[in-house]
TrEMBL record:
Domain of life: Eukaryota
Full protein name: Uncharacterized protein
Region spans: Disordered: 76-128
Record's compositionally biased regions (Basic and acidic residues): 114-128
Length: 128
């Protein structure tokens, strides 16, 4: 549809989680409906573009309830601690290549000791 046949509506952001309205909008208004953050007269909200009417009061109430649930889930996840948090990208976990004082350091010390002993023996032979 052309943009001239689309209706645009603004609703305030109050009690609405952006992720929830983004996920729910097309369910309520159809696949052509879009939503984006928009500030109108200094107030944050959402600009909804749709070929038909805007959300009903009941649909907005439903989005507000789902938004509250989303915020509660996020708060619970934060309070449970990061130790149980699963990485979104498990393939990007750090891999230890060397640690200070680890086996690489011990190996280097042994090699340096051997080199120094070899030099000492060489120097002794030269002196004799």
């Amino acid at each position: 549809m052309s943009s001239s046949s689309m209706n645009r509506y603004w609703i305030p952001q109050l009690d609405i989680h952006k992720k929830v309205i983004t996920q729910e909008l097309q369910y309520y208004l159809g696949p052509e409906a879009t939503v984006r953050s928009f500030t109108r007269d200094g107030e944050d909200g959402f600009l909804i573009t749709t070929p038909g009417p805007c959300l009903t009061d009941e649909q907005i109430d439903d989005i507000c309830v789902k938004s509250k649930e989303m915020w509660e889930k996020q708060a619970a996840a934060r309070s449970s601690g990061a130790s149980t948090k699963v990485l979104k990208r498990p393939l990007h976990q750090p891999v230890v290549m060397s640690k200070a004082g680890g086996s690489d350091s011990a190996r280097r010390r042994r090699e340096n000791r051997r080199r120094n002993e070899s030099r000492s023996r060489r120097d002794e032979r030269r002196q004799n």
